[in-house]
Every structure is written in C-alpha cells, then in structure tokens.
Design a protein that fits this description.
The complex is a heterodimer. Chain A is of the alpha/beta class. Helix content of chain A is 40%, strand content 13%. In chain A, helix 10 crosses helix 12 and helix 10 crosses helix 13. Chain A is globular, with a radius of gyration of 21 Å. Chain B is mainly alpha-helical. Chain B is built from three helices and two strands. The relative contact order of chain B is 0.06. Classes of the chains: A alpha/beta, B mainly alpha.
C-alpha cells in the first residue's frame, strides 16, 4: 500500500537510502531478463529527489513511479519506443506528470511499450521486447507492457500507462496487476504523445485496487490544456462495494471467442461473485464481429493524421537525406518508423483517401455509434459487464507478431470501452497453467470509482493483490 | 502502393513494399466486415464527447526559443535548417 510506504518514509521507519537502494538492487538483479524500462534514471539523482520530497511531506512524497515512455517528462527522454524519438528530450511535462510531481512522486524511469503504442505485446518496440515476469518466454501484453512488468517484477507499486484499445488492461491482465482505462475526458491527454485521440486515455496501473484509486484521483480532473477534459474529481480513497444484488452481465459472445482455459478462470471468478450475492446473467455484446474492424479503421485513420507531424526537421530522427522536402521527409519517416507504425500510417492514409473515405472511415464512425448505443441498452439492464480482458493467455515472444490480424484479434474484449468512452478495469482473476488471467469489468460512463470499489471487494476474496512474480 | 507512399510521405524498401502489399490486402479484407451492416440513417460518431471547452483566449507563459528548439536536429542562430520547399 503506497500510503503506508509514504507514511513510513515520512516518519523515518523507512529511510530514502533503504527504499531507493532496495529498488535499484531489485532492478540490478532481474532487469536484464525483464527489460521493463527504456530509460532508468541514475540512482543518485533518484535518491536525492526522494530525500527532498520526503522533507516536503506531501501526499505521495518520495514514492517511486514508473511512467510509460509516451508520456512527456521534462528533461527525461521520451522515446515512444521508436527510433524516430530515440533522442527526444521533452522541454515540458505532461499534465499528469506535473500533478504527480506536485504530490511528491518521483519518476524512477520510463517504461517500454509498443512503438507509438501500436501493438498488443510490447514487441514492436525499437528497443526490443519486454518479457513477462511470470514466464520470461512470454510477452507481458501491450502496449503498456513495460509498466505491467515493472509492477509484477516488484520494482514499483504504481505506474502510468495509456490505453487506446486495451493497452493498459491487456498488460494488467497478463501480469496479474490492476489497470484502469478511465472514462474518456477524465484524465488530461496534454503531453501524451498522440496516437488516436478520440480513443485514448492515460490511466493508472497498480498492484492493488486502493493504490489504483489513489493514483487515479491524483491524475484525473479538467485541464485547460486539453479541451476534451471534463470537470471530474474522483475520491482519493475508496470503500469496498459489496457485490450483493449487483447486476452482472457476462458477455457470452466474448467468452465464446476466448481460450477455454481463460474462460474457465473467468467463470470461477463469476462463481465467486455469485456466491457473494451478485446477480450474474449471460448476455451478448451483440456487435462482437464488428468491434475490431471499427476500432482499427478509426485508430489507423487518426494515427495517419497524428503522426504526420514527424518530419525529422523540427525534432526526431533525421536521415541526412538530400533533396526536396518530400524526399527528405519520406526518407526520415521511412527510416525512423518501424514496421507496425508504417503499416498503420499507410492503411490510415488509404482509408482517408478520396474514394475510400466513405466506404471505410464514415462507415466505421457510424458503426461506432451503433456499438455505443448497444452498450447503453446493456447498461439499462446491468451494472457491470464482465468478460476476459484478453481472449488468450500471454503469447510467447514471436507468436503473434508476424500476423497483424492475429495480433489485432487480441483486443476483441477491450476496444469496446474505447469506442464507447466508458471505463474498463482489468483485475486479476486467477492463473491457468501458471499464467495470469485477468477479468475485465466495464461500467457506465463515469462509473470508474464504482468499478474500483467492486474490485477492492473482490480482491479480498480472490486474495490476488500485491503479488510479485517469482524471479 | 507507391501512391500510398507519396500520400503518407514514407519511403519503403522494395522488400517492405512487397510485404505491406500482402498485409494491406489482408487487413482491408478484415475491415470489409462492416459492409454487412445496414447503416442507413445512422449519424457518424466523430468524437465520443459532444462538448469541448476552450480556455479563455489569453496567452500563457510560452517556452523560450532555446527550449522550443532544443530537439531540432539542424539549426543555426535560432532558426531551423530545413530542406528545400521549392520545386517539390
């Protein structure tokens, strides 16, 4: 529990030397096998900052945090795990970083991710894949896989991720940690390197529900620098919400699309909810065959537009190519972007080009509305919709990466929440053959705190909190 | 494929071109699934929130020129050196 740790630091039960020392000790022992970080700050810099923060006595004073490498940190390089931004050092902080610094949190390092958050396994990183601490031959999911692995390896208690179509929840599921994709508009995206703005949110990742809720309360809130944020202030501490009488809809069509092993663990979790008095009923998402094409058409279109800014002239990779601006930009982008990023930009450019715009992009936006409407209907009957977070167990490194459509299929349960702007929370449900399985809870727009209250109640029943992978 | 490279301003190697052609065909096939839906009368949902709110139109403290240009690969006297934009 981070509040206890901050308290221990404040009253001297835990010295900054001991806290920072044991963190770096752990990193030295296991990080060359896990590779959760792109950048780890120098131990002496971190220690000095922790000491200073502890004296200031703020809510998170001295707490170490891992930050996904697409969130801008002043003076600490922010690469998006891309060759394009390999040497990019932001001259400003993202709003969420300003808020965390104000509360005394100290950045330990920047975590690995799929390049520009485009991937579901953290394998498209220019710096190489992150490995899953529960099984080093497997991926931790993605794109916030570095943050998930940093939690499961026991480096930190909390981390930041970002979620465009499941990028917080899939790693949370694969590493037996907690991850929230917040309701759209609750957390400022200022300083988040844009991939698909109408879908993505920065969100908290943690080793238990209470820490998750505390981190969320600090990063949430309206921001003048992001016109899509809303006035919203979630409570900093949450109470467990007993599930007795709560109406739970189980998404049968998503369950049926999942590995039997995964579905089995989720069924056990649902049985526990039933025993606690929840009213569990099978239902269907209804649009399950359409959510992935809809999501990927929109995400790639927005990506092709957002990533147009990388020219290698104002910042980013420069190839030293000669010629006119088109040749120079094309070379810089051709050499600076990795395969998956190029694939998505090219497809996005195709979709948005004359003749295909109506057929793909506009149809996808219409389908997005139908999906949102169909969820609204479900939420008139149910308080929570439950499914596996990922239809599969953590894949082995190399297992899905060469087949884009196979990789995209991993997101079948998660993209819905992004399309509909609603909160999605992944919590540990159990293990299958020694591999973590997460369950996803989706709720009505702005029910984030409610979902975390249910999660807090259920974690006391599953006992799956604050667990560290045996490394 | 070459038209797409021009649209996206990305130059590909011959090997990438072959590979992406195959991938793109497959992914577009996967996208065509939404053709089955009857979408008559449905309004496109461009953004999940219908309202945005803008801050008052007053200047904030900007970055200094040196800070703003701190990541420029080629610069001189506070200016960015870019490629030729004439005759492109």
């Amino acid at each position: 529990m981070i509040l206890e740790m901050v308290n221990d630091l404040r009253n001297g039960n835990l010295s900054p030397d001991e806290y920072v020392g044991r963190t770096f000790e752990r990193i030295k022992r296991v990080e060359d096998r896990v590779k959760a970080f792109v950048t780890i700050r120098r131990e002496e810099d971190v220690l000095e900052e922790v000491k200073r923060a502890v004296k200031e006595g703020r809510r998170l004073s001295g707490l170490l945090i891992a930050v996904k490498d697409n969130i801008s940190t002043k003076g600490i390089r922010t690469t998006c795990s891309s060759k394009m931004l390999e040497n990019y050092v932001p001259p400003y902080d993202a709003t969420v970083i300003l808020k965390l610094r104000k509360e005394g949190a100290v950045i330990l390092g920047k975590t690995n991710m799929d390049e520009f958050a485009m991937g579901s396994t953290t394998e498209t990183s220019y710096f190489g894949p992150t490995r899953n601490p529960w099984d080093l031959s497997r991926t931790p999911g993605g794109s916030s896989g570095g943050s998930g692995s940093a939690l499961a390896a026991g480096y930190v208690s909390v981390a930041l991720g970002s979620d465009t179509g499941g990028s917080i929840r899939t790693p949370a599921s694969f590493t037996s940690t907690y991850g929230l994709k917040p309701s759209y508009g609750t957390v400022s995206r200022y300083g988040l390197v844009a991939y698909a703005n109408s879908l993505e949110q920065i969100g908290p990742m943690a080793r238990n529900s209470a820490d998750l809720a505390l981190l969320f309360s600090i990063i949430a809130g309206s921001d003048q620098r992001d016109a899509t944020t809303i006035d919203y202030s979630p409570p900093s501490s949450i109470n467990p919400i007993a599930v007795k009488g709560i109406k739970v809809g189980v998404l049968k069509d998503v369950m049926d699309a999942s590995d039997p092993g995964v579905a089995g663990v989720v069924k056990d979790f649902l049985n526990k909810m039933s025993s606690e008095g929840a009213v569990v009923e099978e239902t269907n998402l209804g649009m399950v065959d359409y959510v992935l094409p809809t999501y990927y058409i929109i995400a790639m279109s927005e990506a092709s537009s957002n990533l147009a800014r990388y020219d290698g002239v104002r910042y980013g990779y420069s190839s030293n190519a000669e010629g006119n601006w088109k040749d120079v930009y094309s070379r810089n982008r051709g050499e600076g972007f990795g395969k998956e990023v190029k694939r998505r930009i090219l497809l996005g450019s195709f979709i948005l080009s004359a003749g295909y715009y109506e057929q793909f992009y506009i149809r996808a936006l219409k389908t997005r509305r139908l999906i949102r409407d169909s969820l609204e209907k479900l939420f008139s009957r149910y308080d929570i919709l439950v499914s596996p977070t990922s239809p599969i167990l953590p894949p082995r490194i190399g297992e899905v990466i060469d087949d884009p459509v196979k990789m995209y299929a991993m997101d079948v349960a998660t993209v819905t929440a992004n399309l509909a702007a609603i909160p999605g929370l992944s919590i540990p449900a159990g293990f299958y053959n020694g591999l973590p399985v997460g369950v996803q809870l989706m709720g009505r727009y702005l029910s984030d705190t409610f979902l975390m209250g249910v999660s807090l109640y259920m974690e006391n029943i599953t006992g799956l909190k604050d667990i560290t992978a045996p490394l | 494929m070459r038209k797409l490279e021009r649209l996206a301003l990305i130059s590909l190697t011959e090997q990438e071109r072959q590979e992406f052609m195959r991938d793109l065909a497959r992914i577009l096939d996967f996208f065509n699934k939404i053709d089955e839906l009857n979408l008559e009368g449905v309004e496109p949902m461009f953004h999940p929130l219908s309202t945005g709110k803008l801050r008052p139109d007053r200047p904030n403290q900007p970055l200094s020129r040196d800070e703003a240009l701190s990541n420029v690969p080629k610069k001189k006297d506070g200016y960015i050196i870019g490629p030729s934009t004439i005759g492109g």
